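Q: Here's a chain of 234 amino acids. Please give me its 3D structure as tokens.
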Amino acid sequence: MKKSILFIMMLFLSFMIYACSAGDQSPNTDEVTFGMPFTYSFTTMTYANNNNFDIFYGLGDPYEDFVILYESYNSIKLTEQEASIYEHIIDNLASLSSSSGRSIGYYLSTYTSTDLKNDFDSYEITMTIDDIVAFNNLKSFKETVEGTSRFLSYIEKPLYIELRFGVVLTDEELSDLDYLQYHFNQLMYHASVSLLDDSFEDIISIASDLGYTFTEEQLAQLESGYNIIHSIAE
């Protein structure tokens, strides 16, 4: 129990530290640096799915990312029962979002639980009493977070990777990811590529067609960063 409390306190402090250094600055919607933190978005309910210039784009998970935000904000871990209930409603919201083309945030911002049940029925998604309660709690939590200091919407990338995937990145791995982010950022201004879906060879081929050249050493560092992304995502 003491370890859990200490862990939450350390997580809380990490957000506070970034808040003091970040001030009122917001990440650019295009250009990304590895040092930029993730910013939680209630639109996608993720930290990592909000900017396709970011090398971690696509790694965000609505439920997992919500848990990180919720536990850091409330300084308490969800019980197994609470976690299960939230996972169920968020998974259903994600399914509805995928089918309707509307974001999860749209439903949280504009729908009542009655409205949501009507849509669930239309898409043959079962809605339980627990879902209704959890949905209303999500709406309330969203309003609370958005109405207070926004520092908790930030998280540094190494900490996010550790909390989400249990991976502690080494200094060398951080350097490789930083290098990959720099070049990926440049490439994305001229082409649309995906680190998760495209092979490393295809990405380098696209870069070469655009006039980019790399030494063997640079290619090795880029591939190392690419492989780190895939090892985390697996």
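Q: Can you summarize the key feature?
A: Residues 59 and 233 are 7 Å apart (CA to CA).
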